[in-house]
Amino acid sequence: MTQAKEAPHNMPMLLAGARRWFDDALMASMRAAGEQPLSSAQGQVFALLDAEGTTVAELARRLGVTRQTAHQAVHGLLALGLLEQVADPSSARNRLIRITAEGMRVHRRAQATLTVVEDVLAERIGAAAATALRDALTLPRGEPPVVEAP
After folding, report:
1. Which of 4-8, 39-43, 134-138 has the highest mean pLDDT?
2. CB 3.0 to 4.6 Å from 30: which of 8, 35, 109, 147, for a disulfide?
């Protein structure tokens, strides 16, 4: 009996797999360095915070998740001392989420780790392929299309 040929993965699955590879490398490397492991969502929060602080509602919008989900990610980071809440000078009702000094230290370490992981990827797939991949992912894609399946 012949084995069924596995269908090729679609682009979203390939991108998700690549993302998991980076996340796994980052988590394992940070854990090996003695850092508290963070979830992927918690890591994304750092990249989306403004220097002066960002509301949970705005973080939720940027993450593409509910306020409750964003609040859960932020709450864990607050408990670890990586983020802090401060009053929003433009609104008495809102609180801003900002990175603490310890959060900045961890974020810088994570960014430096990701640079090394990218270098490993370039060694494995070739520098030209890694550059082409980065270039392709930074091209403008425009608004997501609405299409009819054939």
Report:
1. 134-138
2. 35
Q: Is residue 21 part of a domain?
A: no
* 116: CATH: 1.10.10.10
Number of domains making up the chain: 1
Supply the mean pLDDT for the chain. Answer: 92
In a domain, 138, yes or no: no
Give the pLDDT confidence score for residue 41 in this predicted structure.
82
pLDDT of residue 4: 59
> What is 26-50 written as a DSSP string?
HHHHHHHTTPPP--HHHHHHHHH--
